[in-house]
Design goal:
By secondary structure, the protein is an alpha/beta fold. It contains six helices and nine strands, in the order βαβαββααβββαβαβ. A six-stranded parallel beta sheet has the order 1-9-8-5-2-3, with helices on one face. A three-stranded antiparallel beta sheet has the order 4-7-6. β8, α6 and β9 form a beta-alpha-beta unit. The two termini are about 20 Å apart.
């Protein structure tokens, strides 16, 4: 396990969502106080959705917040399986964030075109590094739509088209690990027993996509990492 990975074990998926929501609220207030804006990369998934619902009633400077998406399925706007749709229903439609600050990955005829459009949006509207990147991890160790065995560009590209995702839909757009690593803070939320095998592989140095994200806090519930497993070197939740 890389020294830049800070793993924290929490009792339940709900506890992971609560701790993440607190971290996001603090990061948002601090970023707006210091720099005037908060640029946040959102993730899909059930635990991030719990976190978003917890933030609905939080009195944050939403009018200064900009939301980006780490990845998206190539589906039309409003489709129920889009990460954007989930984020809007769970949080964004319930807080006073300007619609112009919700930078969704656009739908296009093919993933290459959509990735190019989003890279242009990022270059024109985003000030790097991101204040906060939030990610999840799949049972195969993927994060965003960066899957094991998928080649990433050597050049410092911002986005990539995904045309053969191992789970439907096959076409997606993802930020690259190069871009996701340009952050001030990063949270990776990992819950559920189906994630244990990938976590154990990462702990032993497997180069899975999630392991390419540096300087991140990994918030992991006890189902994903049971108490009997080795946890030497893990960080204390009090440090968050």
């Amino acid at each position: 396990m890389s020294p830049s990975m800070r793993w924290v074990r929490l009792p339940t998926a709900e506890a992971v969502a609560v701790r993440a929501a607190r971290f996001i609220a603090t990061a948002c207030r601090r970023a707006v106080s210091r720099r005037g804006t908060f640029h946040w990369v959102l993730a899909g998934g059930t635990t991030p959705e719990r976190c978003y619902r917890l933030l609905r009633d939080c009195p944050l400077p939403w009018h200064k917040t900009h939301c980006w998406f780490g990845d998206e399925r190539l589906l039309p706007g409003g489709h129920p399986e889009r990460n954007e749709t989930m984020a809007r229903r769970a949080l964004l439609d319930h807080v006073p964030i300007p619609d112009a600050h919700i930078h969704a990955i656009p739908y296009a005829d093919d993933a290459g075109q959509a990735a190019m459009h989003y890279a242009r949006m990022l270059a024109e509207r985003c000030t790097l590094p991101f204040d906060l990147v939030m990610l999840g991890m799949g049972e195969d160790g993927h994060t965003a739509s960066l899957f094991p065995g998928q080649l990433e560009p050597v050049a410092a590209r911002l986005t990539i088209p995904v045309t053969k995702a191992p789970k439907p839909p096959a076409q997606r757009v993802s930020m690259t690990s190069h871009l996701l690593n340009q952050h001030r803070h990063c949270l990776i939320l990992v819950t559920g027993e189906q994630k244990t095998h990938a976590l154990r592989r990462i702990q032993h140095g497997a180069p899975l996509p999630a392991a390419r994200i540096t300087r991140a806090w990994w918030l992991i519930d006890r189902e994903a990492w049971p108490s009997g497993y080795k946890s030497d070197g893990w960080a204390s939740a009090r440090r968050l």
